[in-house]
Automatic annotation (TrEMBL):
It comes from Paractinoplanes rhizophilus. Signal peptide: none annotated. Keywords: Nucleotidyltransferase, Sigma factor, Transcription, Transcription regulation, Transferase. This is RNA polymerase subunit sigma-70. Interacts transiently with the RNA polymerase catalytic core formed by RpoA, RpoB, RpoC and RpoZ (2 alpha, 1 beta, 1 beta' and 1 omega subunit) to form the RNA polymerase holoenzyme that can initiate transcription. It comes from the Bacteria. The keyword Nucleotide-binding does not apply.
Length: 335
């Protein structure tokens, strides 16, 4: 039997491009979905470079499978199915794309392959579920990584994209009962992994930074520029969660211990005490881009990006990334 429903404009144009073997038209119709597909792959993989690769793999697979598209589902849905399975295939091949036990006494496991996502690469439509802030922030992305790959896919398709169980089951080659069971288990794990103060990811989405967040990131930069360690410590909660990736060791620490640890590592000491910073956002989170000038160097050079989660005006979570090897963040190399 064929589906008698009328085709949407996208589906009809796509089928016409396939029948004409028109690669340019095919690329034009699929390219408009690139950003949201890349966010989808990032949620699955927590790594920006992997997400780029799998988005490109999605388009390659779509071209190779173009004859299989019959318009029974929206073109967007068909592409999401391909992208999801491309990510699952990658996860089957890569044993370094799962959380690893912490090397520190903290019982948590870590996601050393986590990379920040530049906000400028998010889809432009703020109403899209794919850019809901609660589901792109780092804590959520890390929590998702603790799910087995198929549970991960089910949670994203069902709870973030809002697919019905039957559609998710069809995309993943599962039964509806299996999808329902996987979703229930995934939700339990997510609530265990997300820090207790985090929002429910199924609550109404927010997008904009608050004044508290904007003020805290400005203060964070200013305390570095003044080398004011007391003021820096006063910005941190006493149950701070801190990580500096890709170094091992996500820890919950006091504000004083965090600052003492940075000092013992050489920061704020001669040679690493001349700072400048700019405010930005990654993963819809406030972030500080830090630059340091060493003796004899006329310029401040890119050092790190600190993504901040702010609670009641204080920094509750700080995830630092080496910024020098992440050209996709499009940051000036010097100030």
């Amino acid at each position: 039997m064929t589906d008698a429903r009328p085709l949407g404009a996208d589906q009809a144009a796509f089928i016409a491009a396939v029948r004409a073997d028109d690669a340019a038209r095919f690329a034009l119709l699929t390219e408009r979905h690139r950003r949201e597909l890349q966010v989808h792959c990032y949620r699955m993989l927590a790594n920006y470079e992997d997400a780029q690769d799998m988005t490109q793999e999605t388009f390659l697979r779509a071209w190779n499978k173009r004859e299989s598209f019959r318009g029974h589902a929206a073109l967007r849905t068909w592409l999401y199915r391909i992208a999801t399975n491309a990510c699952l295939d990658l996860l089957r091949k890569r044993n370094d794309r799962t959380p690893v036990p912490s090397e520190l006494p903290d019982p948590d496991s870590e996601v050393p392959y986590l990379q920040p996502y530049p906000d400028r690469m998010l889809p432009a439509d703020p109403q899209e579920s794919v850019v809901a802030r609660e589901t792109i922030e780092l804590a959520f992305i890390v929590a998702v990584q603790h799910l087995p790959p198929r549970q991960r896919a089910v949670l994203i398709l069902r709870d973030i994209l809002g697919w019905p169980a039957s559609e998710a089951a069809d995309a993943l080659g599962l039964t509806v009962a299996s999808v329902t069971s996987a979703l229930q288990r995934a939700r339990v794990t997510m609530r265990e992994q997300l820090p207790g103060r985090r929002l429910d990811w199924r609550s109404p989405a927010t997008h904009e930074l608050s004044e508290d967040e904007r003020g805290a990131v400005r203060s964070y930069i200013e305390t570095h520029e003044r080398n004011d360690l007391d003021a820096l410590a006063s910005l941190l909660r006493d149950d701070l969660r801190f990580a500096m990736l890709p170094d091992p060791g996500t820890v919950t620490t006091t504000a004083k211990d965090a600052v003492d640890g940075w000092l013992s590592g050489g920061l704020f000491q001669p040679g690493h005490d001349d700072w400048r910073g700019i405010a930005t956002t990654v993963n819809r989170m406030p972030a500080a881009v830090l630059y340091v000038r060493t003796p004899g160097d006329p310029e401040y050079r890119l050092f790190a990006v600190a993504a901040l989660h702010i609670v009641d005006g204080k920094i509750a979570e700080l995830t630092g990334f080496d910024a020098a090897d992440k050209p996709w963040l499009d940051l000036p190399p010097t100030l």
